[in-house]
Structures are given as structure tokens and as C-alpha cells.
């Protein structure tokens, strides 16, 4: 089977996310990166394309140029799927244009800057039937997928408590300096949307809570922190979650958790046991039982689910990391494009991005309306 031809928007010379996506795309030999628009400055984009060893005639000036020229190529040669790795405010117009011109799309999160934009993309995607993935990266970890499988199989019984936490401290050097916080794009609503912390990392925690439990959150109550009156964007927040009248949880997200790096922790408690996973030690899944010693599950062993093992590339004892996680998502997308889907949840879909945008807006609304319960359902 020929490789899927991949184009990339953004993710150029100094982009960490660009490296992550390129390595992930090459991991299973399913994709061939053939071109794109890597930088708003065409000269920089061309130079970067040369470094990647690409045919620079397919390093385009802008998205219009890409669509016009790629659409003229024979089906066997043109780009099939495009990864959108640009700042948040460009996600919607780029994804919309790509869908309308018949391309499959892989989009960084958050999906858009407004819920209405996300719903517009959903309507277009339902009409054109293109594959659309939103890269909630952490869903690709083998032990996250093992957690999802075990919960679905009843390993911890009926869920009765959900606790998700995502703590970082990266914004501390910026937020306390008035000049720096005024020029940081993540704190600019025009570029980042209405939320910084919840929009950036809180959506990962929200998505994970729904992903591993297989349940939709019904209502939320939020309390956000902006720290300074002239800062228009939240940088810390706590959100109470209500899946049902008897199943509740809490989501905590912060970018001012001093000293924290990327502390993303997921804890799901059932009436027969509990599961706990930590992103900074992603190869360990902890199973807790009241009448048994703590059990530690690791990737690559035969006791894991087929879903977990399908995304495990190394023998037991060899760490799987963030590149592997994103690679598993790219593999799931490739299987979908090739109509060879194997597992539900193999890649986050547009619906997951839509849920994330709804969560961002409802969280901000809950806070601004006086920390009240808000219904997540339309």
C-alpha cells in the first residue's frame, strides 16, 4: 500500500509541536511528508522545506497556493491529509478551507477559538465525509488505552469519583511582568480565544476524563483565576464535574503551579477498585484494590488489552513516551483513511474537539456568572 501523502501548516524551524508531529507521522511508515506551509514567511518556509529534503515546489506561499496547486495534481500524487499546527486563531479558517476542498484534516487543539466555529466545522465534515482528527496527544499512550479498556470491562466496577489534574508552572516568568504578559500570544484573546489555561491544558484533562470513562460530562461549575486585573485570560482554575446525580468529579488546571513541569494525573475510582496514571511516568498504570496490594501494570505485557498492545512498539521495560503516543494517534488516522479501523478511540475525532470547545465556553461562562452550575448539553 502506498504511503499517505501528508502536508503540514505551521510547525516550522523553532516549533516543538512540529517535531512531535513529524516524528509521529514517520513512526509506522504510513505517511510521506510531501509539502506544506511551514512559516508565514515564505523564505523561511522554503529553507525549512530544504532541510527536510522536500521538493520545494511543494513548499507553498500560503494555504490558498497549496490548495490551488495540489488540487490540480492527479489523485495518486496530491496531498491527502493536512496537519494544522498553527496558533489557535488560524485553526478554524484553515480547517474549514481544507474540508471544503476535499482534504482530510489533523488539527492541533483547541479545535477553534469558539464553539460556534467548531459546530460549523462539524456540519461541513458531516457533509463532505472527510477524516478529521484533533490531537489530544495523551490518548495515544498505551497505558491510557489500557485504562480505558479496563474501565470498559468493569475492572474497577461502577465509577463513583473522577479526579483529573494538569499542573504546569511555565507562565510564572511572564505573568508577573506587565510588559511580558501584554505581548504573550497565549494571553491575547484575539489569537488564543477566550481562555488560556482551560483552553490549553484544561481541555486535555476534560477530554481524558470523558475518554477513559466513556461517559459525557453533563454539568460543570468553574472558579478561575486571572491573577491580575489587566490580564484577560485565565491561568488557573478548578472545575467541578457532574457526570450524573451520583457520579461527580473535579478538574484542576494551572499554569502558575510553581515548579511543576507537565504534571498531568488521571485518577478514576470505582466501587471495586481504582486506576491512576501520571503523564510524567506514563509507563505505569496503578490498580488499587481495598483488599489487595497495589498493582503496577506496564506496557508490552500479554496481560494488557489488544488496544494497548497495538500501540506498544517496544518490548517490556523499554519506555514509551510522548512521540509514541502521538505516533499511535497518527496510526489510527492512517487506518481510518485506509478504511482499516481496528479500535474505537484510536484517534480523537472532530466531536472530541467540539466537546472541548463547548467545555471552554461553558467553563468561562460558569465563572463569570458567579460560579454557577452550567449545563454541558445543548
From TrEMBL:
Residues 18-136 form the Gfo/Idh/MocA-like oxidoreductase N-terminal domain. Coiled coil: none annotated. InterPro entries: Gfo/Idh/MocA-like_OxRdtase_N, Gfo/Idh/MocA_oxidoreduct, GFO_IDH_MocA-like_dom, NAD(P)-bd_dom_sf. Pfam families: GFO_IDH_MocA, GFO_IDH_MocA_C3. One of its GO terms (molecular function) is nucleotide binding. It comes from the Bacteria. Residues 144-275 form the GFO/IDH/MocA-like oxidoreductase domain. Signal peptide: none annotated. This is Oxidoreductase. It comes from Christiangramia salexigens.
Amino acid at each position: 500500500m502506498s504511503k499517505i501523502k501528508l502536508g503540514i501548516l505551521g510547525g516550522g524551524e523553532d516549533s516543538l509541536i512540529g517535531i512531535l508531529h513529524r516524528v509521529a507521522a514517520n513512526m509506522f511508515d504510513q505517511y510521506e511528508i510531501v509539502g506544506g506551509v511551514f512559516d508565514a514567511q515564505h523564505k523561511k518556509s522554503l529553507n525549512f522545506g530544504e532541510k527536510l529534503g522536500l521538493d520545494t515546489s511543494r513548499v507553498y506561499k500560503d494555504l490558498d497556493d497549496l490548495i490551488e496547486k495540489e488540487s490540480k495534481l492527479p489523485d495518486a500524487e496530491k496531498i491527502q491529509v493536512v496537519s494544522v499546527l498553527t496558533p489557535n486563531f488560524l485553526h478554524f479558517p484553515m480547517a474549514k478551507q481544507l474540508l471544503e476542498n476535499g482534504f482530510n484534516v489533523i488539527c492541533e487543539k483547541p479545535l477553534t477559538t469558539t464553539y460556534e466555529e467548531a459546530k460549523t466545522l462539524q456540519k461541513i465534515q458531516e457533509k463532505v465525509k472527510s477524516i478529521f482528527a484533533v490531537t489530544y496527544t495523551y490518548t495515544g499512550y498505551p497505558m491510557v488505552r489500557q485504562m480505558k479498556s479496563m474501565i470498559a470491562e468493569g475492572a474497577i466496577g461502577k465509577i463513583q469519583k473522577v479526579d483529573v489534574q494538569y499542573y504546569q508552572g511555565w507562565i510564572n516568568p511572564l505573568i508577573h511582568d506587565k510588559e511580558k504578559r501584554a505581548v504573550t500570544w497565549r494571553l491575547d484573546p484575539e489569537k488564543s480565544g477566550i481562555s488560556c489555561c482551560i483552553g490549553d491544558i484544561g481541555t486535555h484533562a476534560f477530554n481524558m476524563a470523558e475518554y477513559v470513562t466513556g461517559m459525557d460530562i453533563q454539568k460543570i461549575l468553574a472558579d478561575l483565576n486571572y491573577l491580575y486585573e489587566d490580564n484577560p485570560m485565565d491561568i488557573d482554575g478548578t472545575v467541578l464535574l457532574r457526570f450524573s446525580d451520583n457520579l461527580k468529579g473535579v478538574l484542576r488546571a494551572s499554569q502558575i503551579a510553581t515548579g511543576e513541569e507537565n504534571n498531568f494525573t488521571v485518577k478514576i475510582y470505582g466501587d471495586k477498585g481504582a486506576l491512576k496514571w501520571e503523564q510524567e511516568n506514563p509507563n505505569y498504570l496503578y490498580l488499587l484494590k481495598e483488599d489487595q496490594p497495589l498493582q503496577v501494570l506496564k506496557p508490552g505485557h500479554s496481560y494488557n488489552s489488544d488496544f494497548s498492545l497495538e500501540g506498544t512498539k517496544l518490548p517490556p521495560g523499554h519506555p514509551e513516551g510522548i512521540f509514541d503516543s502521538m505516533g499511535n494517534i497518527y496510526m489510527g488516522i492512517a487506518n481510518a483513511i485506509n478504511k482499516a479501523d481496528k479500535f474505537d478511540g484510536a484517534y480523537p475525532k472532530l466531536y472530541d474537539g467540539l466537546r472541548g470547545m463547548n467545555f471552554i465556553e461553558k467553563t468561562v461562562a460558569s465563572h463569570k456568572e458567579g460560579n454557577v452550575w452550567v449545563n454541558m448539553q445543548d
